[in-house]
Specification:
heterotrimer; A alpha/beta (323); B alpha/beta (180); C alpha/beta (437); A: 323 residues; alpha/beta; Rossmann fold; 2 domains; 12 helices; 9 strands; globular; C: alpha/beta; Urease, subunit C, domain 1; TIM Barrel; nine-stranded mixed sheet; five-stranded parallel sheet; 11 helices; 27% helix; 22% strand
């Protein structure tokens, strides 16, 4: 695997491979010595143009548990905020010997531009680009669903027949996009639920059902319901009238939580707006997987870094980089 | 004289069975019984052999002996020279390895690097009282100071030759072959 | 200056004809011509077209000379077979006064490759708030007749109405960049299935169509001419067709890139394909081709938009909009319209020379190849198929979407008022050396 840029182009075979290796990584986290020597001598750079402490720490922990060296670069106060281009930033990192660049950027497509530009030879992991994709989030979400369903017997299994509802600002959500493609690849049925203003204008190519009514979607008994964070700035661009109305129509409150089947899980990529898209009851219930998702994030990112960096990179497909 | 013949069988099913039985007896003799033994196979065929040896140890001694698997992929020193390897699960039996005598089991012993990686992996899992090594075929050409405690067959070989171990559970047949 | 005898060119693609060029005009047109002492150009197999006229070019000077200058843009135009370009006013300072347009005219004359005809801004600074001194620009030495805020839409309906009315006084025309700014805030590409997948903010077709619909009704109401820049959607073609049927005095242009390229090229986030209006769907490409073929769309205009490397070699969102297009225009029109049988070379002469000159009210340009007419023409070889490469670009910037793509044809000669700007495929190093008539 030369780069991990998205889940749209991730084959079922590669997706299962990442999830299964993540199982092995997860096992090592319950030992006394949680560290593996596998990526000793490799340098992983966290190139974060957007603030994100949680994701950055998760990647940092993943890299360190594989004994890689980690360099953190955040845009604030750096040369980037003074106008340095992506190209110059990338080439500086290359000159410093980065083996992998984990990039979070506000512009959709920036990781792909980085990976195909010829500016760097390092492997690129997309940690979230604009409103486009966040592949490791979708992978840890799939890992979480699989674990809850199959426990220690998860290896090799896909999510055929699992019913997932994704609720919230689909239009602006890279988490939603990555999840739609990956869940579909793994055989799950996906329904998206949102106000019409927050659904992309043309969804004909998406393998999903669309619902505007959250109560109807819950009555259909999904196995997992994934709540997305709503950004209040959207209110100012007339996507919905008030917080209150959004919360009443699309928030997972206590009543809706009770209406969910007992075995259904409640997911959230974090950070949560408690009381807005998800109530405290839902967030803290035994059905909530919020904390497991965070823990699983480290295992999945360890798997991604391992598959990107451990093997011989020179034989990987140069075609992947062609513009 | 270079041989262009098809693979030569050096151990048939019966030879393998006899070797494993003998190894099991030797393990019990050297350990003075089955106490505190933990048998860990190195995937893939080492795990199959470990299960057979564990079964034989239990049969001979009358006491069940814990059997597990120890994957060494993450500890190899040659990862970056090969296409990415997929790891296998590591299963340490309940009861762990602290204070136990761990018997590592693998099918072929060659450079010794897999065993070095296995020792590093064991080190991160716990602190065994002792580690022993049981091997079905020792083909020589060691690159590290590693030696087996229990050997099924010593098989002098040319470096360029290939030694293949096939087991019923994995390949449908029990045999060890060598080919140029 | 000696005369030139062009032998055996296919006038507008038909029978082989000879032309004699003398003293800046076409002296004679016929067969079996001869002229003592004339330089002979063997034009067998070449199509002779009147010098192309681009109603929509960005020459970037004054203010953005790192991207292009009037000199380098003129050279690029000549290389593409052009002898007249209309220069859009989004310069710095904006061309909203007689002073700036006269400066542009002078720079074009000094360069000497093409006639640079300035376009004046509709509003001061192109801000959309107050009308610029349109009359002063019309009366200036630059004789501006086309006015545009291109790059921006004249969004305020009242300002658009006033502009449409006001330019009637001097037979001017407002060329609208149709883009509702409220519907396209932060837009990056066409809104549709591809934008939904790529996570790029969408530029919906309705943002173009709704402005055109409004403007044709305004033009009808006040009895004015209207020109619509870079039409890109099937819906827009339908609206123009409807308006023309009603008798509205509206003309429209399409760019070569909208005749060929679709939004699928945005996958991969290569900013060479980032342009405003954006690349659209295949259905839109088919619709504008049909529109150009049936006359609903009157002309091809390049919207040649040079940008420096750092504005294109970056993440999509940070990249500038625009593609250079002067050098490739005729080749793309050949591939999409002539080779497909939708237009013949006579039609090409109309949509790329005569009609743009007429819309721009420039009677010295776009003239047919007849005795007595100014000797401004291009000789084009439609036969070769070559990969478009850096060597084909003659401006300062190289942001072309065609690099690496096979295109037919090659401009072999361009002559501007009797002076040769492109000889045997080579752009003249300078036009100073040539004796001026």
């Amino acid at each position: 695997m030369r780069h991990l840029l998205d889940t749209k182009h991730l084959s079922r075979e590669d997706a299962l491979r990442i999830l299964d290796v993540a199982e092995d990584m997860r096992d090592t986290q319950s030992r006394e010595v949680k560290k593996l020597p596998t990526l000793r001598g490799k340098t992983v750079v966290n190139l974060f143009f957007e603030d994100s402490t949680r994701t950055r720490i998760s990647f940092e922990a993943a890299a360190k548990r594989l004994s890689a060296d980690v360099i953190n670069f955040s845009a604030k106060g750096s040369s980037v905020s003074k106008g340095e281009s992506l190209q110059d930033t990338a080439q500086t990192l290359q000159a410093m010997g980065a083996d992998a660049v984990v990039i979070r950027h506000g512009a959709s497509g920036a990781p792909q531009t980085l990976a195909t530009s010829g500016w760097i030879t390092a492997g690129v992991v997309n940690a979230g680009d604009g409103t486009h994709e966040h592949p490791t989030q979708a992978l840890l979400d799939a890992f979480t669903i699989r674990r809850r369903r199959f426990g220690d017997d998860s290896r090799g299994r896909d999510l055929a027949g699992v019913r997932v509802a994704i609720v919230g600002d689909i239009l602006h959500s890279r988490v939603a996009r990555s999840n739609v493609w990956l869940l579909h690849t793994l055989g799950a049925d996906v329904t998206i639920v949102a106000p019409p203003t927050l659904i992309p204008q043309d969804l004909s190519a998406w393998p999903v059902q669309v619902a505007y009514d959250l109560d109807d979607a819950i009555a259909a008994a999904p196995d997992a319901i994934m709540m997305l964070r709503i950004q209040l700035e959207r209110m100012n661009a007339a996507y919905f009238p008030t917080e209150r109305e959004y919360s009443r129509r699309w928030g997972l409150d206590a009543t809706r939580l009770r209406a969910l089947p007992e075995g259904s899980i409640v997911m959230h990529p974090g950070p949560m707006n408690r009381g807005l898209e998800i109530s405290a009851d839902a967030a803290d219930s035994p059905q909530s997987t919020v904390l497991e998702q965070v823990a699983n994030g480290v295992s999945v990112r360890m798997a991604a870094l391992y598959l990107l960096l451990a093997g011989d990179r020179s034989d990987t497909n140069a075609q992947e980089d062609a513009r | 004289m270079t041989s262009t013949e098809s693979p030569r069988t050096v151990m048939h099913a019966a030879d393998i069975a006899r070797a494993l039985t003998r190894i099991s007896h030797e393990i019990l003799e050297s350990n003075k019984g089955p106490d505190d033994l933990v048998v860990l196979g190195i995937p893939t065929r080492g795990v199959t052999l470990a299960e057979r040896v564990g079964g034989l140890l239990a049969e001979i001694s009358g006491t069940p002996v814990p059997v597990g698997a120890l994957d060494v992929t993450m500890y190899r020193d040659d990862l970056h020279r090969n296409p990415t390897r997929t790891p296998h699960p590591t299963e340490i039996p309940a009861g762990g390895i602290d204070g136990k005598t761990v018997v590592l089991v693998d099918d072929v012993l060659f450079s010794g690097r897999s065993i070095r990686a296995a020792l590093d992996a064991l080190n991160d899992i716990g602190r065994p009282a002792a580690v022993r090594l049981a091997i079905l075929v020792d083909r020589g050409h060691r690159e590290l100071p590693i030696r087996p405690d229990f050997v099924g067959k010593n098989l002098p070989s040319a470096r360029a030759e290939r030694v293949n171990v096939r087991l019923i559970e994995n390949d449908g047949v029990d045999e060890v072959t060598i080919e140029s | 200056m000696t005369a030139t005898l062009i032998r055996g060119a296919m006038l507008n693609g038909t029978d082989a004809t000879d032309l004699i060029v003398d003293d800046g005009v076409i002296a004679e047109v016929g067969t079996g011509l001869s002229r003592a002492g004339a330089t002979v150009v063997d034009a067998a197999g070449l199509v002779a077209l009147p010098g192309l006229v681009d109603l929509h070019t960005h020459l970037r000077e004054p203010g953005y000379e790192a991207s292009e200058t009037i000199l380098t843009g003129s050279r690029a135009a000549a290389a593409g077979g052009y002898t007249t370009v209309f220069a859009m006013p989004n310069t710095s300072p904006v061309a909203d006064t007689a002073g700036v347009v006269e400066q542009e005219l002078a720079l074009g004359e000094a360069a000497g490759y093409v006639h640079v005809q300035p376009i004046g801004a509709v509003t001061v600074g192109q801000k959309g708030e107050r009308l610029a001194e349109l009359g002063a620009m019309a009366s200036s030495r630059a004789r501006v007749r086309v006015f545009s805020d291109d790059g921006f839409c004249v969004f305020d309906p009242l300002i658009m109405r006033r502009a449409l009315e006001y330019v009637k006084a001097f037979d001017g025309v407002v060329a609208q960049h149709a883009q509702d700014p409220r519907l396209t805030e932060g837009a990056q590409m066409n809104e549709g299935t591809v934008s939904a997948e790529l996570g790029l903010a969408g530029w919906p077709a309705v943002a173009e169509e709704s402005i055109i619909a409004r403007d044709v009704l305004l033009a009808e109401h006040v009895g004015s001419r209207l020109h619509v820049c870079h039409l890109s959607t099937a819906g827009s073609v339908d609206i123009i067709r409807w308006a023309k049927k009603r008798g509205v005095n509206v003309t429209a242009e399409v760019t070569p890139h909208h005749l060929l390229l679709t939004e699928e090229l945005v996958r991969g986030y290569d900013a060479r394909f980032k342009v405003n209006p954006p690349l659209r769907r295949d259905e839109d490409v088919q619709a504008v081709r049909e529109g150009l073929a049936d006359g609903t769309i009157d002309i091809v205009a390049t919207d040649h938009a040079p940008h420096p490397d750092e504005a294109k070699s970056c993440e999509w969102q940070a990249a500038a909009n625009g593609m250079v297009g002067l050098e490739s225009a005729l080749r793309v029109v050949q591939q999409t319209m002539v080779d497909t049988g939708l237009l013949d070379w006579d039609d090409v002469a109309r949509v790329m020379s005569a009609a743009p000159a007429r819309i721009g009210r420039l009677d010295t340009a776009g003239t047919p190849l007849v005795a007595g007419a100014p000797a401004s023409f291009t000789l084009y070889d439609p036969a070769p198929v070559r990969t478009f490469a850096r060597a084909d670009l003659h401006g300062l910037s190289v942001n072309s979407p065609y690099l690496g793509r096979e295109l037919p044809g090659e401009v072999r000669w361009t002559v501007f008022r009797g002076r040769t700007t492109v000889a045997d495929g080579v752009v003249a190093a300078s036009m100073d050396a040539e004796a001026r008539a």
